Amino acid sequence: MKFIGITGGVGAGKSKLLGYIKRHYKCEIILADEAAHLVKQPGTECYGALLALLGQDVAGADGQIDRKVMADRIFANPELLEQVNGIIHPAVRVFLLERLEAARLAGEAELFFVEAALLIETGYRALVDEMWYIYAEETVRRERLRKLRGYSEEKITQIMAHQLTEERFRENCDFVIDNSGSFQESCRQIDKRLEAFTWRE
C-alpha cells in the first residue's frame, strides 16, 4: 500500500480532486482537519491539555471545544498558537499512523492519502512514500475562494501570506498536479500517475 501526502495552497482544489480519487481508486483518505477535530473530542488527552492551556471556558455548553473561541484566543498570540499546535499535531500524527496500520492490516486499500495544507511544515515528508502538490495559479485560487467561500480579497491575501511559497511546495514534493484548468485535465494527470493501481468504475 502506497502512502501519499496531498498538499497545496488554499483554493487549489485539493478536496475536489480527492473526491475523484476516492470514487475511482481502492484507497483510504484522511483529512488532517477532520482528524484534528476527532483528536480533541471530550475525554481525549488532547482535549484535557487544550483546556488546561486555554482555560475551561474554551469548551461550549455541549462540552466540545468552541473553535471560534479557541481561534480568537490564539489569533493574536503566536506563542499560544505554537503551544496549541504542539498539542494537536502530535495527536493527529498518532491517529493517522494508527489508521495507516489498520488499513495495511485490513488489506483492502492500495493507496492511503493524508491531506493538509501544512504537511511539509509538520514533518510528514519523512513519513509518506510520495508528496503531491496540488497547484493552481493565484488568480484562479482567488476566484474560487471569492465564489465558493465568500472570502474578501483582504482575507484571501492574509491567508496566502501565511502559507508556503510555490517554490517551497515544489522543492518538497515528488509530483505536481496543475489544477488551474479543467477538472477533467486534472483527473487525467492523476490517472497517469496512478496507472499501476486498480481503477474502479
Descriptive report:
With 201 residues, the protein is of the alpha/beta class. It is built from nine helices and five strands; from the N terminus they run βαβααααββαααβα. The chain is 52% helix and 13% strand. Strands 2-3-1-4-5 form a five-stranded parallel β-sheet, sandwiched between helices. Helix 2 (32-39) packs across helix 5. The longest helix is centred in the middle third of the chain and has 29 residues, at 78-106.
Defining traits:
201 residues, 9 helices, 52% helix
TL;DR?
By secondary structure, the chain is α/β, with parallel strands linked by helices.
SSE topology sketch:
Elements: E1 2-7, H1 14-24, E2 27-31, H2 32-39, H3 45-54, H4 67-75, H5 78-106, E3 111-115, E4 130-135, H6 138-149, H7 153-161, H8 166-171, E5 175-178, H9 183-193
Parallel strand pairs: 1-3, 1-4, 2-3, 4-5
Helix pairs in contact: 2-5, 3-5
The proportion of residues forming helix, as a percent range, comes to: 40-55%
Gyration radius over CA: 18 Å
Quaternary structure annotation: single chain
Alpha carbon gap, first and last residue: 20 Å
- Strand-residue fraction? 5-15%
Q: Helix segment count? A: 9
Shape type: globular
Poorly predicted runs are none
Order of helices and strands: EHEHHHHEEHHHEH
Q: Average pLDDT value?
A: 94
Characterize the main sheet.
Answer: 5 strands, parallel
